[in-house]
Amino acid sequence: MAKPGNLAIDGADPRIYDQINRMSAEREAAGQEPMGTIDQSSVGATNVTHRRHREHDPSVTFEQYHYFALQTRAEEDAQPKTGYETTIWSLFFPSKSDGIATRTESSEKRDGEAAGRMVVTDEEWINASRALRTATRGAIFYLITTDILGPFGLPYAFATMGWGPGIALFTVFAALAIYSGFLLWEPFMGLDSYEYPIRSFGDLGYRLYGRWMRHLINILQSVQLLLNVGLIVISNGEALSQVVKFRLCFVVCCLIWAIVGFLVGQIRTLQKFGWLANAAVWINLICMFITMGGAAHGGPNYAGTASSAGASISGGALITPNAQGVFPPVQTSGSLPDTGSFIGSVGGAMQAIFAYGGSMVFPEFMAEMKRPKDFLTAMWAAQAFIYFWYMFYGLFLYGYQGQYTVNPSYLGISNYGIQTAGNVFAMISAVIAACLYGNIGLKVMYNNVFVELFNAPALTTRAGKWMWVAVIPVYWTIAFVLAAGIPNFSGLTSVVAAFCILHFTYTFPPLLSIAYLVKKSAMREGDGYDPVTGQVTRGDSGFGRFRRGFMSSSRWWMNSLNVLYIGGALALSALGAYASIMTLKSAFQTSVTTSFVCKSPLDG
């Protein structure tokens, strides 16, 4: 089963070296000739055996990637499936007995080359790469639903958009997210291989657009993960302040979770916590059911009205108590509520987009799969699961709490016992998510900034392990300071959605799809890669080749649709960015305090 800690390691995956050493030991124990071994203390960031095995080699062409991808897909299709793997139950209950993808080793080995203290042949590298792909579609279903953190912002989204627009937009976002998953899956299937494995979203961008796209994707991915960690610190701080009945300074509540991050972040790989990460989806569901029960059997948490959706509707009139201290009744709207401008409604739309932030690591999930072809069914099932439960939860809470809905929604329950139960489960789930996001986020940043630009030691070395220990507190401190310095939680989540999540879910997938389809469709008879000579043949180049690929008889309509899709995504991103910035600007102008205070934002 795939482990979250294995994901998003941009660069040569250190598990390949571990796998080669393990396979070598097994062969030697069986009396066979051992494979080349690797001392990880000598492995640097780019210290790999063959040039063609480097993760980002500009000399490797699209035709080469595509040729080896077709060979890999054919081999995966030839792998026998168990009867259980073909049933619907394998999606929800992955079998523990699923073995790894294997292949009979070729009797004719290629010559190995020395690199530092390792000697590994091409065949050994390929076998090690192949053996790492162990995840089934059931594992991917859990990883996708675990990764996405959006349910607790949806009631707030419906409160700022109303029943009709909220349902319509969330449905459209769900359909487009499913389409985007397909747009990421198709290029992955056509470019990933055992010889040239794709490890991350950035790898996919690199093979289709070049180094600049990889850097752009990695920067946005790092920013999103950093801010996600900060959001978790603040939301858990708010939950803890409620649990202790505001008797503990709010900034201390947040600082406690930052310190927890210092400790859990010292785990470099989360392989042993895979079962815990899978349990997070059920913990989230329990928290949702508890919150719905609390909302149905008690009134809203009036002490937190300043953070509610009603604060941006009708100038706050719907949450202002009368002279006797009685708050207005719960109200809902079938259409867009009167927010005074479109900013509040766009901010609500950003909360709905936040629910589909998992696309950012879809390529990493596919890289873990024994059969990436099965990703589509796992993704479709996960998105359907998310759509149904998130929609049901969001509408339920909005119906009972209306304009008093806060973000995250479990903080809006008035009954202390139910409120505490929900907060405890939410905090547990958030800590698991923090482990996942902090681990991946720092690895992306470390490998792409420290290793690549500043020649820092690789994480597989002793020096790299000590470096990891040192940078973890710095990473969590930055996340905490950034999030705590912003006085509006929903404004911060809108910023993350507009600048990062929206692009990974709705902008990058069609952009990558266009490049892949154009390059693939432009290939004519006689074009391609010759494995015998190692030569690549192209009949033409330039704009004429691009036009032929774009206007391909079979996919011109899809390319045209994707151009419109990109334009719409960029326009929505611009609106979301403007709305979130104006929301934060308003929060600062009205002297709303930051999180560096003792009084909790939920305490009146």
UniProtKB/TrEMBL annotation:
Keyword Transmembrane assigned: yes
Protein name: Amino acid transporter transmembrane domain-containing protein
Annotated compartments: Membrane
Ranges of residues in domain Amino acid transporter transmembrane: 149-520
Tree of life domain: Eukaryota
UniProt membrane topology term: Multi-pass membrane protein
Transmembrane regions listed in the UniProt entry: 139-159, 165-185, 216-237, 243-264, 276-296, 342-363, 375-396, 416-437, 466-486, 492-518, 556-581
Magnesium is among the record's keywords: no
Entry coiled-coil feature ranges: none
One Pfam family from the record: Aa_trans
Principal location: membrane
InterPro entries the UniProt entry points to: AA_transpt_TM (IPR013057)
Swiss-Prot/TrEMBL keywords: Membrane, Transmembrane, Transmembrane helix
Family: Belongs to the amino acid/polyamine transporter 2 family.
PANTHER family, sorted: AMINO ACID TRANSPORTER, AMINO ACID TRANSPORTER TRANSMEMBRANE DOMAIN-CONTAINING PROTEIN
